[in-house]
Amino acid sequence: MSGLYSLARPLLFQMDAERTHEMTLRLLSRHPGIGGFYDFGLRHDPVRLMGLEFRNRVGLAAGLDKNGECVEAFDRMGFGFIEVGTVTPRPQAGNPRPRLFRLPRQQALINRLGFNNHGIDALVARVRRTRRQAVLGVNIGKNADTPLEQADEDYLIGLRKAYPIADYIVINVSSPNTVGLRKLQEDGRFAALVASLHRERTLLGDRYGKRVPLLVKIAPDIGDDDLLSLARTAVDGGIDGLIATNTTTARPGLEGVPQAAEAGGLSGRPLRPLAEATLARLRRLVGADYPLIGVGGILSGADALARRETGADLVQVYTGLIYRGPGLVRECVNALQAPSPHRMPVTAG
User: Fold this and answer.
1) CATH hierarchy code of domain 3-335
2) Which is nearest to 246 in space by CA: 266, 227, 226?
3) Which DSSP state fits 256?
4) pLDDT digits 0-9 by tens, 138-158
5) Cis peptide leading into residue 233 (ω within 30°)
6) 3-class DSSP state for residue 53?
7) What are the extents of the domains in the chain?
8) What integer is the mean pLDDT of 221-250?
9) Dihedral sign for Cα atoms in the order 14, 37, 84, 308
10) Contact 217, 267 (CB under 8 A)
11) 174 is catalytic
């Protein structure tokens, strides 16, 4: 654990989890130079993927900086890419509090935040004012009060508004904290959404003279048949990559833990086996060359390397950053400097 963070964490963990989160974001947004304290010893490890140049393979997962308030601070920490959001067309408060819970012994979080954010217009304006070197992803979703039948239009609004400022855009259809959202992963709905976004992306590419990669973030709680259908639809529909995975509604390893009864998505160490297994299944389905980003339960450099060996081209952290501190970025980047790992054998699904 980073020295400064190891001193601060006991105090931070005495406070309400969401209050601590908000306080930390305010600090980082007002004093982005703090991030630069943690990039000492971080090696340069450039990689090209989806037509983008990443300075390393380690990214910040969506959800931590929903409104793009701390991009400069996270950039200075050494992340190769930063994913902001999930952001919706209109501002929304999210679900009632309390909605974020720490499980320190399990190095886990349960959250039911519900896409609380300031809206896409505020995020775009903020990003335009931000200086960065890292690749920037924008994760988009639908407003909670938008019916599923009209969800496509919310995603199209997000795509249109994020397109000029994003290096890549992620379609979030897998959060468990917006009622009914995961139904958008179902065969017919998902195919229609992908087709609609692909058409719009083509028009936007002509308008802005650039092609912004489009990715989809998926759930770990998905059966083999549904995963096969989703992967095929994504590949055939022009989606540039998949992110595996979002949080889980399952409670692996939490037997007897009182907070396990809280509704919401579980992240952190207990999610790792599910996320890794989903990534492995995806890699077998999509082949060796299709871009995959691994996220979920990465709390060390060894975890990052294991996810790379399972088939991830890039990795992301979120809960690990809360438990390990910013030094985790350097640890993961340097761990992935090892010789190219042996990728597991793949077969077309």
Assistant:
1) 3.20.20.70
2) 266
3) T
4) 999 999 999 999 999 999 999
5) no
6) strand
7) 3-335
8) 96
9) negative
10) no
11) no
